[in-house]
Amino acid sequence: MPSTCRTCVRRKVKCDRLTPRCSSCRRGNHECSYEAPFPQTRKRKASEDLADRVARYERILRQHGLLDADTQTRVSGIAPDPNSFHYNEPAASTTGRVLAAKGTSRYVSGHPWTNFGEEEVRRVFEEEEQEQREMTITSERLGDPLTDALVGSRRSLLQYHPTHTEALLLWQTHVEKVEPFCKILHISSTSAMIERVSHHPELASDADECLVFAIYQFAVYAMTDEDCEQKLGQPRSTLSRRYHSAAQQALVNAAFLKTSDIQVLQALVLFLLSSRQYYDSQTYWILTGVAVRIGQRIGLHQDGEKLGMSPFDVQMRRRLFYQLIPLDGRASQMAGTVVSIPPDSWDTQLPLNINDEQIWPGMTEAPREQQDATQMIFCLSRACIGRFFASMSPHLSSTGPWKFDSLPEAESVIGAAEREVEDKYIRYCDIVDPLHFLTVGLARAGITAMRLRVRLTRVRNQTATQAEMREVFHLAQKILDTDAAVSAHSGLERYRWHVRPFFLWGTFDSFIFVLTTLWTRVSVLSPVEVEEAWTKVEKLYCNHDELLGTKPLYVALRRLTLKAWDVHARSDKAAEPGFITSAQRCNVFKGAVCD
């Protein structure tokens, strides 16, 4: 059977795949041509296909050095030394590669793709591309602003504007739920703009319209289904699609690809942060790359104070730049490539620890930094830890090992990071405040993650004693405990949009290490430690529904969980808990009943 014709793919309509001409092309008198399908392999049963895919995902984790290899030892029948613990040696290659075929090519670099053989990588991306072609036909996902900017045209958005009352409600939601984690707007200036545009949308500039729709979209993203129904009288899904479409078109209307307007870039960043669910990892990486390029054109990578800019502009540019860095890092990691903003390419200083009322357009003197917890507390703590991670990147290869000459050398860097974030920010936090509680958890998990990764590298590259392995195990448990505490905090319910899909630094490293220990080296733990570890694993599943989803990493993590549980159940005759039942069901049905 032929694949979908090129014309139907381009027009995003369903194709009945008739030959020599499909019905859609025949009705519209369009040229109809089909792409040659990928070479077909023997059709496998769904269970076989799932098993092969999961096995491949586990190989990714093994080759990355995060999953203990059991194949050589177990197949050979040679029992491992119970007093030692081994991780795989990471791949030696730290360079990317270019995959070329049939006139196309693709550069692949970074975790985890550089750890694959070329044929394995090629097959993964061919499968992804095939799935994306099918998704174009069958899904109702929205398009992307880059494509619309290239082939779309300007359109009026007057009909998409909310009422004045609705606009103020959405803005207040943004201030309360989004601003603490994304401080790239000046509250009083933006409030005045929202007031003006919501009264007279027909007079809004392109840049203003861009920003208001990005704010509205993010506000809906941060709201619950019940809030949308009660306060706005419409389903959240309807509002989300409405404002996503409007924000996307507003970017096109503002010619965002050639903009030098910082307000348009602010809108694009807000749009991207609240749109991850709409795009596959490759498209999302391209879109965040556009944001990075616009930031470079505006000059955000150079500190505004050195450029002689006004005190207000200096602070707003710094805030925006330090939001671009984690946005770029997350997108690059998801797409399997390197970051677009290498640490030696910028000199932008951290924003000051101040509140919004301390800065305003037209001010002539720099504000005085506060020795207290301000509105910037979360963002600055994140930026401070992130900057230390970036400074340690020369000791990283693309496959992940930290190449310090000694543990004391690494500890000196980590100690400096810990002192800075504690002295500048954490000491002022009041953990009764939910946001401060989250900030403390974020910062301390980040420091623990640094210590964990340094020691994981030592474990990977040499045989570790039981004492060394137990130290790593306890560091991993500490991160899982912090994640559980953050997830269980009732005061953070208002930030549910951020907390539920949010994994602290080091959570995945910790989760994999704990599961691997429970699976292959449980003998080094006491019965009490085993039970405590399983309690932490259960909490992670309960707090993060996405672990029951269909992404490759989650499938492999569930498989690892089930292997560890199998060992535990055989030795302890333990009753099967609900999260194990759910993990088994999701793996059998490929997540269909769990998403």
TrEMBL record:
Might you report a single GO cellular component term?
nucleus
Localization, per the record, is: Nucleus
- The chain positions of domain Zn(2)-C6 fungal-type read 4-34
Q: Which controlled-vocabulary keywords does the entry list?
A: DNA-binding, Metal-binding, Nucleus, Transcription, Transcription regulation
Gene Ontology molecular functions: DNA binding; DNA-binding transcription factor activity, RNA polymerase II-specific; zinc ion binding
**For this chain's UniProt record, which GO biological process terms are given?**
DNA-templated transcription; positive regulation of metabolic process
InterPro entries listed in its UniProt record: Sec_Metabolite_Reg, XnlR_reg_dom, Zn2-C6_fun-type_DNA-bd_sf, Zn2Cys6_DnaBD
The protein's matches in Gene3D superfamilies, at most eight in alphabetical order, are given as: Zn(2)-C6 fungal-type DNA-binding domain
Q: For this UniProt entry, which residues form the secretion signal?
A: none
Entry protein name: Zn(2)-C6 fungal-type domain-containing protein
User: Lineage of the native species?
Assistant: Eukaryota, Fungi, Dikarya, Ascomycota, Pezizomycotina
